[in-house]
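Feature request, filed as a ticket because there's no other form

It would be nice if the structure record came with a short human-readable summary line next to the tokens. Right now we just get the raw output. Example of a typical job, pasted below so the devs can see what we mean:
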Amino acid sequence: MSFKKFWPLALGVMLLLATVFLQDGFPSFPYSFQSCSKPIGYTIGTFDTRFGISREYFIDALSQAEAIWEEAIGKELFVYAPENGEMAVNLVFDYRQEVTSTLSELEETVEEDEALYRSLQTQYNGLKAEYERVKSDYETRVETFNEKNNAYQEQVELWNNSPRNSRAQLEELEAQRISLEADMSRLRILEARLNELSREINVLVGRLNRLARSLNLDAETYNTIGASRGETFTGGLYYHNGDEQGIDIYEFSSRDKLVRILAHELGHALGLEHIDDPEAMMYHLNQGEVGVLSDTDVASLRTLCRIE
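Raw output as currently delivered:
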């Protein structure tokens, strides 16, 4: 008898968790920073009026943000150069600010309404518990599948290197292949459910954080499935691509938040990285006082500018 040759099955399973947050940008730059040797000239690039602020308001916030760094060391680090600024500061309106505006309106209607918060919290806890259950089931099934698949591949290899004249062995391999394909289908269903749950959870995370602030609740920060938008510097991005550098501002809920986001991104423009100090301007969370640098901020700036 002559039978067909079997090929091993391989499962490429990746759990893709949906996230709604956007990262604060600080890429690896292909150039050397000027170490404060001369001020960085900036200009206003894209300016979307849907934020409801004037250019003068935005420029004034920028001036306040740059002064935070400059006053710390008594040195001009930035200069507004509307005609020939090397760095564009852009106000970019997209879904982030649209969501923020919508949530701000929602906060007005749910002020002191703890019942709504508790209801969402219960919903969140239920979804999180289901996510953990499905995730545990998924991981167990993946482990079992890998064990079965490895055993199957070993038998396939033996079959391919044998005379391949046993119908019983062939039927056994075929049964194992069909079983593995069924397992793979179930894993894909679990993957889809995990992705759906992660999206639902992240939506609730954003709403809960907004409501917690509006209700002045000392609530748990819902950092889950990656990170919540919450108070992170998701509203700004510093970028440098070749000869082009700039700052994009996407979202802020108040002038204080705008100034801190601008100051944070200006810090990146200088060459400062994130600092593991909750009070720092360069901390990854936007939670400190609006115009105050921490000692670690100042120390990092002095090091960068080579000031003894």
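Something like this underneath would help us a lot:
Residues 70 and 76 are 6 Å apart (CA to CA).
The beta strands are 40-47, 78-80, 87-91, 236-241, 244-249.
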